[in-house]
Each structure stands twice: as C-alpha cells, then as structure tokens.
Amino acid sequence: MSSGTVIAIAIPVLIALAAVVGFTSLRRRDAQGLGHLSRETRKRDAGAMTVTAASDEAKELERSVALARVTADVAIPEPALPEEWTPPDPEEVGVTRRQFLNRASITLMTMGLSAFGAANIAFLWPRPTGGFGSKVKIGTISSVNDLISSSSPAANFSYFSEAQTYLQPFPMDSETQQAAEAVYSGAILDGIKMGYVALWQKCPHLGCKVPVCGTSQWFECPCHGSQYNRVGEKKVGPAPRGMDRFPVIIDGDKVIIDTGSPTQGPPIGTDTTGQGLEGPHCA
Ligand code: FES
Fold it and tell me: Does the model's pTM come out above 0.90?
C-alpha cells in the first residue's frame, strides 16, 4: 500500500475520532450544568439530613426523660428562708474609712487649736525679768565708773549690751545741772543729778546702732550722719531729736537701768554741756 493511500485512510479516521471525543465532552458538560448538583453539594445535603435525624432523636429522648421526671415521685425541696443580718464585729472589721477620716480630722483640729492656744498664752505670758525691756542691773557704781574711765569702747564712754545702753557721765557742776533742769524732768533728771545719763543705742532717725567716736568724743551715726554730743544731744544730721534715754536707778551700790521706760531725747538745739568737737570725726 502506498503512502498516499495510508494518508488518505488515516485523515478520515482521525477526523472521525476527534468528532467522537468532542461530542462526548459536550454531553458531559451539559449533564453537569443543567439540573445536576455538584459532588460537594450532594455530600453537604447528605450530612444535613443525618443531623436532622439525630436532632429528632435527641428531642425524643428529652421528651421521654421529662415525662419520666413528672411521673416519678421526686421530692421538691422547700425554698430556704433568708438569714437574719447580724452586724459584723468591729474588732474583726478594724477601722473603717469613715472612722479613720473622722478621727484624723478631730486629731488635726485638736492639734491646731492647741497650737493656737499655746501661741496666745506664750504671747500673753509676762516676759522674764532681767533682759532688755525690763530693769537691768549693769553693775556697781565703782565698776561702772571704772569702765567710763577705760578706753572701751572709748574714754568717757561705757557700753552695756544687755541694756543696749551707753551709760554716760553727766557733768556735776552747777551750770550744767541748771541747764539740765531746764530741759529734763522726772526719772531722767533724777539720773542726771546722780551724775549719769543712760542713752539708748538706737538712732532716733531710722534706728541704726550709733557708735561712739573716741577722737571727736561724740556719737556719730554711720547711716545718715547724725551726730550727738557725749550726753546724746543732737549736734548735726537728719535725726529729729537727741538720743532717746532710760531712767537710771541707784539701789545701794548697784546701778540699774530701766529699759522698760524709754523717754524721747531732747529737742534739736538742746546743749546743756556746751561740749564741742574734741578731735576729727570718725564717720
Ligand atoms: S539712722 Fe542714724 S542718722 Fe539715720
């Protein structure tokens, strides 16, 4: 058989086979798409049918058990009565928050009132005697005179820190005593007649401590330049008067300065001793 014959036979055979295969596949696709369920759907439906049957069986079982309960002679317990409330033991419970806050506020209020009362009592309590503001014993007449004649703080000046006072000698001649009587009075004049004048260290201008100047023999305030002679009478500066002073008391041989009774210094222009500058100024 020649090759041309073979080809002539093979071509129609192949065409026929291809036609058969195509027709078969078309039929299968039609069968799957029209009216036929997929394999998964069919499997799910089968499972659902099984569950429905099982739930029917379970319901039937429950119904039979409930029927058996109703028909059986089962004792139903009486409902229990509520227990009567008894308050808890405070010792067991301890301190409640309300108790704690009440006690804390009462304690704080008591402490505050106590402190306020103590401060008031301390304010009203009489000051102890012996310090500044009361009668201060500064020594004997001889010890005071010794200090006046020494060079501390300067010759003719004596300072007593416990009384914040310069105790100065006052000339005892009749002329100065007469001049003093014209200006001073009361306890201040009594001290002058005994030969002393007690000058408060505080400057009557603005309150600086006034030091002495050994060369000028005056008090010279370094703050604003007020100057006073040896018995505290104002010479120059802005001070409104002479140095303030205290009464001097001689008790036996004791010298006492009453720092609780200050007296204002003499007015500007007072010059009972006529003491001028005795040397250069310090301030
Ligand atoms: S305080 Fe002494 S002069 Fe002013």
Answer: no
Residue of minimum CA distance from atom 1 in ligand 1: 206
Cβ-based neighbour number of residue 215 at 10 Å: 13
> What is the CATH classification number for the domain harbouring 243?
2.102.10.10
Tokens linked to 29 = 């696709």
Distance 260 CA to ligand 1 centre (A): 23
- Give 30's contacts (C-beta < 8 A, 6+ positions apart): none
Helix (H) / strand (E) containing 227: strand 227-228
Does the pLDDT at position 30 exceed 90?
A: no
Q: Specify the number of domains making up the chain.
A: 1
Residue 32 has pLDDT above 60, yes or no: no
For 16-25, 130-139, 244-253, which range has the lowest pLDDT when averaged over its residues?
Answer: 16-25
3-class SS of residue 134 = strand
The CA 229 to ligand 1 mean position distance, Å, reads 15
